[in-house]
């Protein structure tokens, strides 16, 4: 086997020149498309796409299916671009954490320049697609959400403060608002409430995760709440945010922006969320604890958001 | 910030396989985008 090294893709060369480059070890291997796909954090993207779709479907009026599909695609590509730029910036930190060490950049399957070009290109294209398929307001919001996630959350807040998740949560809260604005061209109280719901949902969701991967964050030097303020304080804050999140989730019903179908779904799901948060909030753990309640809360929080946003759409289609 | 990846050896066949696979994927993506932009234009004209 001729020695050569993984890195950025180069233009096609004539056979003899390629052979010569391989012999001298100066050629680099083009990135595999699966690694570029992994760079977009596809699992995170699924939640973004779903909440954006719900925002779009819950909006008043009719959107042409092609324009709706294109708007959601633009939001998905924008989220993918944010994920790629996040991984490009944090490759060094990812290498120090077990959970992220096998990502394409820290594992050495992709070079940083390819990741940067891919992320910037995807971000620019997603905004252009949104502008073409929907309106400038949605394109502007998409731009703000990408810049907020990359510049404010990833580069500024995350390495500096344990409140990174609280303020940075705004980046993940944009999709339903963008979906709504793509459909209507304007902002209304309901999508703002959905924005607030995801914003308040983010701290208990991420801190539940941070509790059971605390050593990873500590090893990477990321000031997550359990690392800086300790477990006890983190557990209390999970409970605090769960309570105000539950109030924010139920609020659209009494305020008249949704019907009873959403209202009762929000009450039942939020009650269970608070119950699981109480379990996490009041307990104390030893070094060998399996962290089952924390893992349960983390898993449930994902299902909670999916079902609740599904209920927003169901309530819009079949008002009670 | 980012760090340089650890070098991994590979051969010419792998280089060519990846280059072909990326070229094929790019062709499909560009074709799909051309179709998407055509349908968006049509939808905006009738909407």
Order of helices and strands of chain A: EHEHHHHHHHHHHHHH
Mean pLDDT of chain B: 82
Percentage of residues in helical conformation of chain B: over 70%
Q: What is the count of β-strands of chain B? A: 0
Low confidence ranges of chain A: 1-14
How many extended strands of chain A? 2
The termini of chain A sit apart by: 69 Å
Q: What spatial order of strands do you see in the largest sheet of chain A?
A: 1-2
Strand residue percentage of chain A: under 5%
Number of helices of chain A: 14
Q: In sequence order, what are the helices and strands of chain B, one letter per element?
A: H
Radius of gyration of chain B: 19 Å
Q: What's the main sheet of chain B like?
A: none
* Number of separate domains of chain A: 2
Give the largest interface. Answer: A-B, 39 and 28 residues
Shape of chain A: flat
What would you note in describing this structure?
The complex is a heterodimer of chains A (320) and B (47). Helix content of chain A is 73%, strand content 1%. Chain A has 320 residues and is mainly α. Chain A starts with a strand and ends with a helix. Chain B is mostly helical and 47 residues long. The model of chain B has no long low-confidence stretch (mean pLDDT 82). The relative contact order of chain B is 0.07. Chain B is built from 1 helix and no strands. The radius of gyration of chain B is 19 Å and the shape is rod-shaped. The chains are: A mainly alpha (320), B mainly alpha (47). The A-B interface holds A 1-7, 9, 12, 18-19, 22, 27, 29-33, 64, 66-67, 70, 73, 88-89, 91-92, 95, 105-112, 115, 132-133 and B 1-12, 14-15, 18-19, 21-22, 25, 36-37, 39-40, 42-44, 46-47.
């Amino acid at each position: 086997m001729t020695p050569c090294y993984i890195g950025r893709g180069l233009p096609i060369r004539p056979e003899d020149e390629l052979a010569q480059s391989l012999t001298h070890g100066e050629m680099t291997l083009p990135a595999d498309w699966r690694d570029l796909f992994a760079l977009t954090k596809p699992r995170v993207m699924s939640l973004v796409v779903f909440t954006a779709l719900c925002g779009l479907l819950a909006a008043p009026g009719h959107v042409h299916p092609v324009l709706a599909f294109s708007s959601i695609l633009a939001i998905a590509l924008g989220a993918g671009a944010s994920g790629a730029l996040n991984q490009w910036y944090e490759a060094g930190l990812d290498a120090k954490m077990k959970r992220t060490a096998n990502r394409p950049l820290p594992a050495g399957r992709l070079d940083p320049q390819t990741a940067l070009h891919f992320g910037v290109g995807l971000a620019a294209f997603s905004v252009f697609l949104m502008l073409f398929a929907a309106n400038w307001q949605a394109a502007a919001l998409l731009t703000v959400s990408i810049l907020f996630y990359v510049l404010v959350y990833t580069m500024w807040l995350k390495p500096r403060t344990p409140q990174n998740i609280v303020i940075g949560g705004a980046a993940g809260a944009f999709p339903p608002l963008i979906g709504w604005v793509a459909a209507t061209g304007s902002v209304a109280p309901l999508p703002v409430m959905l924005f607030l719901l995801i914003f308040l949902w983010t701290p208990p969701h991420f801190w539940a995760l941070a509790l059971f991967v605390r050593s990873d964050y500590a090893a990477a030097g990321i000031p997550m709440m359990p690392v800086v303020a300790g477990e006890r304080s983190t557990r209390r804050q999970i409970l605090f945010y769960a309570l105000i999140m539950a109030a924010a989730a139920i609020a659209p019903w009494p305020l008249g922006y949704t019907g009873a179908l959403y209202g009762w779904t929000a009450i039942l799901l939020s009650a269970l969320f608070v119950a699981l948060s109480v379990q996490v909030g009041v307990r104390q753990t030893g070094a060998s604890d399996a962290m089952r309640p924390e893992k349960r809360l983390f898993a449930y929080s994902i299902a909670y958001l999916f079902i609740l946003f599904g209920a927003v759409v169901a309530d819009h289609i079949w008002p009670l | 910030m980012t760090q340089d990846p650890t070098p991994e050896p590979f051969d010419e066949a792998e280089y060519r396989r990846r280059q072909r696979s990326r070229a094929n994927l790019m062709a499909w993506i560009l074709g799909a985008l051309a179709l998407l932009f055509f349908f968006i234009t049509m939808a905006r004209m009738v909407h």
